[in-house]
Amino acid sequence: MKDWSWTTMVELPADQAQQEPDASCVPGSCPCSCLRSMVRVIDAVSTEQAVLEAQAALGDVTGKVLLSVYRRVAGEDLLDLLATGHDPGETLTRIRVPIVAASMLGAVLTDSVVRWATVDEGDVSAVGVAALHDQGQTIGLVIAESARDGSGVGKPSAVCLRCVAAVMSVVTLRARVDEARGILLLLARYRSVAELSVQVTHDFNNMMQGVLGNAALAKMDVPEDSPLAVSMAAIEESATRASVLARKMLNFARDSAKGAATCDAVKVASDALDLAGTLYLKGVTVTKELPGHAVPVRMTDNDLENVLVLLIKSGVLRLKPVTGVQLSITSGPMSERAEIRLELYGVTQAISTEDGTEAELLASAAQAVATRSGASLDVTSVPGVTSIVLTVAKEVAQQSSFSSGPTQPVQEMNLRGTRVLVVGKPSPLVMLLGATGCTAQASLTWEGAAQDMAYFAPRVVLAVIGDSSDLDAAVEGRGRLGLPVIVICQHGVGCPADKASSVDGVLGLPLDLDDLRHMLTRVLH
What we know:
Elements: H1 6-10, E1 18-19, H2 39-42, H3 47-62, E2 65-72, E3 78-84, E4 96-98, H4 104-111, E5 115-121, E6 124-134, E7 137-147, H5 158-220, H6 227-253, E8 263-264, H7 265-277, E9 285-289, E10 296-297, H8 301-318, E11 319-330, E12 337-348, H9 353-372, E13 376-382, E14 385-393, H10 397-400, E15 419-423, H11 429-435, E16 439-443, H12 446-456, E17 460-465, H13 468-481, E18 485-489, H14 497-500, E19 505-508, H15 513-524
Parallel strand pairs: 9-11, 15-16, 15-17, 17-18, 18-19
Antiparallel strand pairs: 1-5, 2-3, 2-7, 3-4, 5-6, 6-7, 8-10, 11-12, 12-14, 13-14
């Protein structure tokens, strides 16, 4: 079948294809032996073997036929070849097939109706297309090419092809389960490697501290102009760099759920670039244009580092080689958001399918982390440049939790017995308040809080914030109850400056007990 061209089938209008025959007269059981003979297809150890077995089973009924199984590419009008009965040398140009909307392929993907088309070219007399399914969704196609010869074979059978498609759907699903199981095993191995790496990094950092201490002691015993003193200074410098890098790696590996809900964008973005420079950007010129002060943002340091490192790796896969990187952070004093801009310069070249897929997966993972944190991410690419802009809400707790005048340190007070009312969705705040010594009570709504005022007599209110409507309700509730209100924003929820200035304090989940105690002390002082 070397003369067969996919272009013929791909561009064939759907209305020129014959749809499957009326199956109302077909008995409930398979009318021929094809389905019964496909037991060996299910028993196949691989998708490739299953295709060969199905090809043989179908050939017993319809004559010589060649099958190919394709999986639909998510988010694209493309089909990827999974397995085929063709010789490998004949399928090199058919690894990825485009889907033309008005073609027979597109029609079968849309309505799952089996279609056949006769062909007047090469060794193929007819081509059939049937859909593969997984939980009601069309996930791919089975293509059958019937051979042309003089023995009465090559007659299309829509019923048989439908049987093949049903069996191959099971085989494909089983292959996906096996693939997922393999991925889980691989992830388990990677997790073990990561856990060991973290522990080794801990030990390495401890050893570097020992090296630094011994080097400092050794320097005390030698003259400053001695060659040995110069060597000791070089050892100190190298050990210091190694120790700093180890601590950055440990911060990067830390579980983000255990970290603070905010971080300094300047420090974290710089650390992420330093970490990426050890592998992905080795030898690349790096330029940093950073503010000379901290820029606190509502994002954990772990999440921010993850987004930047994932995007750097994605960009490195697309630009080969990367010749330069520039990091900048802009945030005006009155701005509610900070903009982190990362630009990668290099040479845009055609990349392999594997690299392209990995780059897309990395970018998608970065987008998911950014979305979870309430940040917006924009990635644009032009020849030679990949530009990444991450916009993150600034942390306003420091601004809103203090008055507009000069701030003074607040001495911690004894909170034992202080009554605090928690308003909003169920949360661990009541338990945390108990740990501070306060007496806490929860109310789901502000109407309920107003009723609780008479007998509970709280001194301060904590409002659990899940979205902007909760913020509006907290501002209104403060005026209604006449009590100080501290808003507790759930992970990924930002508090605009105008709302923050209308309440008495802003904190984010997960809460640090000391932060909560200090905020209550300040508000009640």
